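yo, Oligosaccharide repeat unit polymerase is done. seq:
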Amino acid sequence: MNKIVTILSILGYIFFLQYAYSHLISPVYSYYTLTNLHPSAGVHLLSAFLAVLPACFANISVKRPSQAVFWILYLFVAVPIMIIPDYVRENPFDDFFFFKLCVLLSLCILYGAGKMNLLEVYQFKVYPLFIKLGLGVLAIGLLFILIKTYGLKTKLVGFDDVYDVRFSYRDSTIGISGYVLSWWSKIVGPGLFVWGIVSKKYLFLFLGLVAQFIAYNISGQKSIILSVVFIVAVMLAMFKKGQFFGRNFSILAFLLVTGCFLMDQLSGGIAFTELISRRLLMLPAVLTSHYFDFFSINPQTHLGHSVLGWLFPYSYHSTPAFLIGETYFGDAEVSANANLWADAFSAFGYFGVFLFTCILSFILWIYDSFVEGKNVLFFTGFIVMPVWGLIDSSLITSMLTHGILIAILLACFLRTDGIKSK
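structure:
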């Protein structure tokens, strides 16, 4: 019965995602390459079948953080890739169809890695007081850098003013300060928030909200506000110790897209679908199609703009995100970030999709090994925001800038002895 509910929820999620795209988003954003070429019913059925296929075989129970990551990437990255590009491609059965199959195989790799035997790692035994002092000093140090660089802004920034705030943030960012803000909003704030939920110490929950408030006021990034909703959704899906995570998260994804659509129907606008469904799900999927088209006929990057610049020459004048923005939107200032698999294809083609998936699987396997025997609810919530970066940015960016590697490092030392039984 739980499997049936999961599949039906995903089918409902797919239907409302398609309907919202074709009736709300495409009519307004067709100039932004979010077109509607009216794919046939057969295309819709085949893509929906591919999108729902992993749910037919995946276990809905989550016992490790990596298993929750599988469901997050499946519903928020893979499913949109299966269905949204059909609207912008003249022939949905062209070579991009094979890219879809590669994404499905990548999901299989992620799922299989979540079943592997864990490493027996040495658990660092550090006095809890030293850990608390170290974390406190680290948080205060990051906050000091933020205040020194950007100042302390206490007035809540309205959504209408975020673009001015973003320009100011970019102009003020120097050196490591950009990394600091990302670590603050994806590690410190969410970490405090999740700890407050799991331990039922609501002071930490409040401090986490304050931390996110500070980060949002500095950068104007709406995703920081939405991060609180995302964390709460994952925590709700972990109800009953993750026994029904896949089912619960599928229901929440369905309610998210459906709720946005219904709110827009009642208000007569597209604000909710635009803010959440378009930005989080639809646009990265369309950009994936653009990445595929561009790097199928042009030289791949081989990470020559990044960590392998010492080994491979780079063929372009800007990074892939700005290159796609300039090519498809006619603006060299547009950063068209997609997701981990789009970036992987831009680097090494189909091979890159599998390579980056294996690297991510290995990283999550290490994380699982470090948190084995600890509170799975906390460490699942703790990795959520660093992993969220994979939805609309590259694996390397998520590892370094969004804090995946920092989360693994902290997992070596963080202890949850006092909340194991709660």
